[in-house]
Each structure stands twice: as structure tokens, then as C-alpha cells.
Design brief:
The complex is a heterodimer of chains A (about 400) and B (about 375).
Chain A lengths: L5 H14 L7 H10 L21 H10 L11 H14 L2 H13 L4 E4 L15 E5 L2 E12 L6 E7 L10 E7 L5 E6 L8 E12 L3 E2 L5 H10 L17 H10 L6 H29 L7 H22 L25 H7 L10 H12 L20
Parallel strand pairs in A: 1-4
Antiparallel strand pairs in A: 2-3, 3-7, 4-5, 5-8, 6-7
Chain B lengths: L16 H17 L2 H8 L7 H10 L18 H14 L5 H14 L5 H11 L5 E3 L18 E7 L6 E6 L2 E6 L5 E5 L9 E6 L5 E4 L1 H40 L1 E2 L2 E2 L4 H30 L4 H27 L10 H11 L6 H11 L6
Parallel strand pairs in B: 1-3
Antiparallel strand pairs in B: 2-6, 3-4, 4-7, 5-6, 8-9
Classes of the chains: A alpha+beta (about 400), B alpha+beta (about 375).
Chain lengths: ~400, ~375
């Protein structure tokens, strides 16, 4: 049904650039104009930053804008909004919610965070215990969330909370949009093993959320959250990763530049990891080619597993290779980095930070279960938690 | 850093439609003529090779001539297609001199670069599946380590598929010779091999005579190239083998019940199979990369081949070992085919250079030297 093709997108992009020359236009004004022209995310509906065009045509717009030196919306800074909140609001939000939230989200005026994980609900997220109790036109929320990136800079949060503890755990959850500036929302930095605090703990005490900020029906929160989590995809970028492009790069360079550090044992381990890193790179490249050819396979589920293990082993080798320098650490100061950079600092930092790679976004153990059951078709383990009221679960 | 550190062109790591069709034809043939009971029965007989299978595979499907240009009677295809055939042969472990004759010997002859005279004629015979030739080197021979110093007098041990060969390609200090396997002064004595599905033999030459195909100077790089292609495409055989082991293990552990549930529902087993799946996925990328590099004549080929061998050898062995362990007792029997795959995988891990030798090659190519 769509009538917007690449030529039309190119024409509209040039029209936008002519009306709002990037060189003389304020960054936010330009981004708002781009949103209103439907060139923000072209596959979104008209009026909500898109033109109902095929998603695959977005690069046409991006390339035109990049060539003209137009500013972007700094997608890494607002990744949770773009990748998780927006598709969920689009899929389950009311018209008012879509109109209110999507534009400032995409422009970057309002940063989003995600209030899902809890101290008692990690891999078993559906067991979450943060309560939302109906009180007139509001819900009153009490509980504790954890591992929340950007909570300290966020205006809004997507939140899942338990609205009916008498139902089995997957059925008594509802999905809300929480105002992070409301009274009762307290954000504390969560210092991690690297010394810095990328994440936060969020304490919710008597937070009142109007029912108009519920996403989807009461009790359907788990289903809505599936949309969010499905969109938490590992981004397989549009470009090829060069050889030695990942964590193996710094180790290989150290090996070449410091003959005095070389031992036979380290040499064998380095070569084995070098091969595994190169093969993982090729597997990622093959996955990219499959996606481009329109034949997405299940291979994607495995890439995070592979990179988590490799990052850990390679950075561990690197600390050892550095010898005396490996005894040192660059800086234990408690910082609040705006962006996560797995390779930006010294070997010791990489070693410690990569420990999280097999935990965040699904532990490797859970991912292995997913591969075994969904890709290989192996039977699930017998479960005893699916039909029990949430309040009767052991904890 | 060397020029080897950057790929020049993006390798094509997918399968084309034509490659998928070829795979379907080969798989159907092997299911028909070389199912597990047939292979088990054959390997202890006097005729481990099935001549009709070779005719159907080599001549009727045309797999023997994939690397050979059409003007010489071949299919004018490439290593990419030959790799697909080898994936299927790895999945079946049927004895067939494909890797040795249609890849290593054929590639060696092609690399001589002389299409007239006996080389061209011989390539035509090989491409048509009418003759089988093997390079008279040990199956463990690595790229660049074959000493081309012998004469037509001497002993070559552990030559793969020599028993199936009509011709032996013998590298000597005087050049590369084609020697008829049945000629006077040639004996081919079968060995008791670990891998029953790829027979080995000792070749003894006693004042044998043959046709000189090339002088020593031309022979050396040609033998190198033949072994490079053999090592690179062996990765695809290892991939197919590993894939069979994983598929069979998943199938078996879904059916097999202990403790009132399928054993495949236990996490301890599931995780092992999921890890293996991840390694098979990775092996596929490495094997396709090597086949594509060989096919396109990429300057990256020596590295792509070394990476594929350094990785896929271990995956095939691990897959076969996991297959036996996760099958439990039945996996230890002669009746179940798992042992054929373990023996093939272990022998393959030595063929054309061990993983460690290929890592050494990578150290040199990537300038990551030993202390």
C-alpha cells in the first residue's frame, strides 16, 4: 500500500535540508523538523515521525543527511527510548500517548530508562515483586528496581509492576510509563566492579502513576514487555567489522610492540583466541549477509554467547600478557559514564567490565537454554512455577 | 602489519541456489547408496569403495569435474561448489576419493598451468569421473612441507585413497610424474587405518616409470596449491561431519527417556548441545570463507585456509566426541555409526596439517611471532 519509494524519500530529504539548512539551524529545531517531515523513522506512521515506508529505506534518508552534514539524534545516548520504549508505545499506546511521547523521545529532549529488573527478579523477570495498587484514577507503586542505565538523566521510564499477586506470575503484571521526576522516585548510583557506576538502583515509594499512563490492558504487562525485550536486539551493524576489530586488536598490537612480554604459553593461547575471534567475526559477517539477503537465521541468538566468552578470555589474557603493568589499574574513581565503552580503557578495565557480558541482556546460561529449546527443539525442563499464584512462589 | 591483515573484497559466505540444488542431489544420492548400515558393512569388506556411487557422484552429478574448466571437460564451477559436495560427504562418511582426487590431485594438475598434452588429457579423465588420481604424499602432509626430493624409487606411507587410484601423482626432485597404479614396479599395500572410511596405503615404487608432467620448479608450487585447496575444503567436510553429529545427538536425546523424561530436557546436556551448535555455526562461516577465498583466488587464501583448519578440526572432533558421550552406551557399539564419525574426525584433524600447525602459519602471516 505504501507509495513512498527511495526517490520520493530522497526528494523529501532534500526539501527538508533546503528548508532547514543544517549549518544555520539549531540542532534540536532541525531534529524536530525532520521528525515532522516523517524522516525520523520512515517505517513509523505518518504524523509520528514516519511515512509508513519500508524500514529498509531508512539508510536512503540517513545517507542523504550524513552527506549534508546534518546532526543526528545521538542514538547511543537515547538507546533505551529508541530501541525499547518507542516500539512498545507504538504497539500498545493510545493515540494520546503516541502523540505525547514519541516526538521528544526521538529528538532526544526526553531520555528514557527501563524499570524491569529487580534484586529478586533477574533471569526470572516475571517473578518481579514491585507492587502497583489501584487508588481512584491512579496506581500507587512501591518497590525496588536495579541495573537501570540512564535513570539519573531520564525523564521517563517504562515500568512493569505486579497488579494482581493472586494470579500466576506471568498474568498479574501491568505495564506503565513512570515519570522519573515524581515524588517517591529515588535514584542511587550502583557502583560496579570496575569502580564506576554505569547503572542505578531505583527505589519507588508511594509513586502515583495516573491510569492514563498505563500501556496495554491491566494484567497484560508481560505480553507488552515481550515486545520491549524482542526489540532489545543485539544490533548487528550495517558495516563489516575489520579483522582484529574487536578486543583481540589491542592484544595483538601489544604482542607485536612488546617482544619482551612474549612467552610460549601466552603465544599458544593468543593464537587460539585469535582464531576464535576471527571466526566469530566471520560468523557475524555471515549473519549480516543473511540479513541483507532477507534470510535471517537463528544464528543471531548465538553471537552474544560467543562474544561474551571471547571478550572475557581475551581481556584475561591481556592482563596476564602485560605482566607488571597488569598489576596496575587505570582509575578506581567512582564515575558516571554517559556511554558504555567496552574497549575504551585499559586491559584491567576490559577484564572486569567484560564479566558483565555474560550476565547483562540475558545470562549465557539462559541463552543456552533458549538456543537448545527454540533452535534445536530440545524439550523444556519440567517447571513448577507456571500455574502457582505469584504470592505462593518461594523466594 | 602485513597486507594479510585486511580483506580486500568481502567474502561471500552464503550458499547460492545452484549450490543448494547440488547439495540436494548429493544428499539424496548418499541417502540412497550409502546409508549407515551400508557403510558399516562395506568398510570391513574387500571393496570399501562403491564404484557405482563414484560413477553417480563423479560422472552423473558431475561432481568430479567441478574445479575443471569446461573446455577441459569439467563443469567450470569452483571450490564453493566442491565444498558443498564435501559437506555432504562429511555428513555421510561414505568412502569416496573425492577430496584426494577431485580436489587435491585435480587442483595440483590445474596449478601446473599447462592445459595441452598429458596434463589436459588427465584432467579430462578425472573431470569425467573415469579415472581417480591421488597425490603420492602422506595424508598428514602440510602445505609447504612436502619435500619434492624423491625419485621413482622409494616408499610413501599413509597415502589416502591410493587403493582406489588409477594414477599416482608422484612429486620427485626431477618433477611431477603420473604413474599408473598398476604399472610394473608399483605396489599399493593397504594399511590398517584409524579411519576405516578413508583407506590408507603404503605406496612402494621400485624403478617405476611414468609420464613427467612438469619439472621440479613448476611442480613445487602446484603441489603447494593442491594441498592448500585440500586443507581449505577439508574444513567443509569437517563442518558436514560436525553437523551430522549434532543433529543425530539432538534427535536421540529427544527420544531417549531416563528418569521419566527425555534426557535432552536436562540442562547439563542441553547446554552442551547448544555450545556445539554455536561451534557448528562458527565453523560454517570459517569453512565458507576458505572455500570462497580459494574460488576467488583471493590473496587472503593462505590465512582463510589456516583459520578454517585451525578452527574446524577441533569442532569436528568435539562434535564426534560429544555425540558418543551423549548417546551413552549405544554410542560405544560397532553397530551405531557414531564411531565412524569419531574416527573420521580424528584422522581429519591430522590430515593436511594439525590445527597447531595451522596456528603456526597464522602466527607468521599475521606477524604474531613466537618468543
Amino acid at each position: 500500500m505504501t507509495t513512498v519509494d527511495a526517490a520520493e524519500l530522497r526528494r523529501l530529504t532534500r526539501e527538508l535540508l533546503a528548508a532547514h539548512p543544517p549549518a544555520s539551524t539549531d540542532r534540536t529545531d532541525f531534529l524536530k523538523a525532520r521528525f515532522d517531515a516523517g524522516l525520523a523513522w520512515v517505517h513509523y506512521p505518518a504524523g509520528l515521525g514516519g511515512l509508513d515506508a519500508p524500514r529498509s529505506l531508512q539508510p536512503v534518508v540517513d545517507a542523504e543527511l550524513a552527506a549534508a552534514g546534518a546532526p543526528d539524534n545521538d542514538p547511543r545516548r537515547i538507546g533505551i527510548g529508541l530501541g525499547m520504549a518507542a516500539p512498545t508505545i507504538l504497539g500498545f499506546g493510545t493515540d494520546e500517548q503516541k502523540q505525547r511521547f514519541l516526538r521528544p523521545l526521538w529528538v532526544g529532549e526526553e531520555v528514557w530508562c527501563q524499570l524491569f529488573s529487580e534484586p529478586g527478579a533477574g533471569s526470572d523477570l516475571a517473578a518481579l515483586g514491585t507492587r502497583a495498587v489501584r487508588d481512584g484514577e491512579d496506581w500507587v507503586v512501591d518497590g525496588q528496581k536495579v541495573w537501570t542505565s540512564s535513570a539519573h538523566v531520564a525523564r521517563w521510564a517504562i515500568l512493569i509492576a505486579r497488579t494482581d499477586p493472586d494470579l500466576p506470575k506471568h498474568r498479574g503484571i501491568s505495564y506503565f510509563i513512570c515519570d522519573m521526576t515524581d515524588p517517591g522516585v529515588e535514584v542511587r548510583p550502583l557502583r560496579q566492579i570496575t569502580g564506576e557506576a554505569e547503572f542505578n538502583e531505583v527505589f519507588l515509594t508511594g509513586v502515583r502513576i495516573p491510569d492514563s499512563r498505563r500501556l496495554g490492558p491491566v494484567g497484560d504487562g508481560w505480553k507488552v514487555a515481550q515486545t520491549t525485550l524482542m526489540n532489545e536486539r543485539v544490533s548487528i551493524g550495517g558495516s563489516r567489522i575489520p579483522r582484529e576489530g574487536g578486543m583481540i586488536g589491542p592484544v595483538a598490537r601489544t604482542w607485536r610492540e612488546h617482544p619482551e612480554l612474549r612467552t610460549h604459553d601466552l603465544h599458544q593461547r593468543l593464537l587460539t583466541l585469535w582464531v576464535e575471534a576471527e571466526v566469530a567475526r566471520l560468523a557475524g559477517e555471515r549473519l549480516r549477509q543473511q540479513l541483507v539477503a532477507g534470510q535471517p537465521g537463528p544464528e543471531g541468538s548465538g553471537m552474544k554467547l560467543a562474544f561474551a566468552r571471547l571478550n572475557q578470555e581475551i581481556s584475561g589474557l591481556e592482563v596476564e600478557l602485560r605482566g607488571e603493568e597488569g598489576l596496575l589499574y587505570d582509575d578506581w574513581t567512582m564515575r558516571r559514564p554517559e556511554l558504555v565503552d567496552f574497549t575504551g580503557r585499559d586491559a584491567g578495565y576490559r577484564y572486569l567490565r567484560s564479566k558483565g557480558n555474560s550476565i547483562e541482556g540475558g545470562t549465557s546460561e539462559v541463552l543456552l537454554n533458549i538456543v537448545a529449546e527454540r533452535v534445536l527443539g530440545l524439550p523444556a525442563e519440567p517447571r513448577n512455577d507456571k500455574d502457582v499464584a505469584w504470592k505462593d512462589l518461594s523466594r | 602489519m602485513t597486507a594479510q591483515t585486511e580483506e580486500t573484497v568481502a567474502p561471500d559466505l552464503l550458499y547460492s541456489e545452484a549450490e543448494d540444488d547440488l547439495r540436494a542431489a548429493v544428499r539424496s544420492l548418499l541417502a540412497d547408496r550409502a546409508d549407515a548400515p551400508t557403510v558399516i558393512a562395506r568398510i570391513e569388506s574387500d571393496t570399501p569403495y562403491d564404484p557405482q556411487l563414484w560413477k553417480a557422484l563423479g560422472a552423473d552429478i558431475g561432481a568430479a569435474g567441478l574445479l575443471v574448466p569446461e573446455k577441459l571437460g569439467g563443469q567450470g564451477a569452483s571450490h564453493r561448489e566442491a565444498a558443498v559436495v564435501l559437506e555432504e560427504l562429511g555428513r555421510s562418511v561414505a568412502p569416496a576419493p573425492y577430496l584426494t582426487s577431485a580436489v587435491v590431485a585435480t587442483e595440483t594438475l590445474l596449478a601446473l598451468g599447462t592445459e595441452d598434452g598429458p596434463v589436459g588429457e588427465l584432467l579430462g579423465e578425472l573431470a569425467a569421473g573415469r579415472k581417480v588420481a591421488v597425490l603420492a604424499v602422506p595424508f598428514s602432509a602440510e602445505v609447504g612441507t612436502v619435500a619434492v626430493t624423491g625419485t621413482l624409487d622409494g616408499i610413501v606411507t599413509a597415502v589416502a585413497d591410493a587403493a582406489a587410484a588409477d594414477l599416482l601423482l608422484v612429486p620427485t626432485s626431477d618433477g611431477l610424474y603420473a604413474v599408473e597404479a598398476g604399472a610394473t614396479g608399483v605396489t599399493v599395500e593397504p594399511l590398517v587405518a584409524l579411519d576405516l572410511t578413508r583407506p590408507l596405503a603404503t605406496v612402494t615404487l621400485t624403478a617405476a616409470t611414468g609420464t613427467r608432467l612438469a619439472d621440479a620448479e613448476a611442480a613445487r608450487p602446484a603441489v603447494r596449491r593442491g594441498l592448500l585447496a585440500g586443507a581449505g575444503l577439508l574444513a567443509s567436510e569437517q563442518l558436514g561431519l560436525a553437523e551430522w553429529c549434532l543433529t543425530e545427538t539432538v534427535r536421540y536425546t529427544r527420544d531417549r527417556h531416563q528418569f521419566n523424561r527425555p534426557v535432552g530436557s536436562f540442562q547439563a546436556l542441553k547446554h552442551r548441545m547448544a555450545q556445539l551448535w554455536l561451534q557448528v555455526v562458527s565453523a560454517r562461516a570459517a569453512a565458507r570463507n576458505a572455500a570462497d577465498a580459494l574460488a576467488s583466488g583471493s590473496p587472503d587464501t593462505p590465512l582463510a585456509v589456516a583459520v578454517a583448519q585451525a578452527y574446524c578440526s577441533g569442532v569436528a572432533v568435539r562434535a564426534a566426541e560429544e555425540c558418543i558421550q551423549l548417546h551413552g552406551g549405544i554410542g560405544m557399539t560397532w553397530e551405531h555409526p557414531a564411531h565412524l564419525y569419531l574416527k573420521r574426525a580424528k584422522a581429519d584433524s591430522i590430515a593436511y596439517g594439525t590445527a597447531g600447525r595451522h596456528r603456526d602459519a597464522i602466527a607468521e602471516l599475521m606477524e604474531l611471532p613466537a618468543p
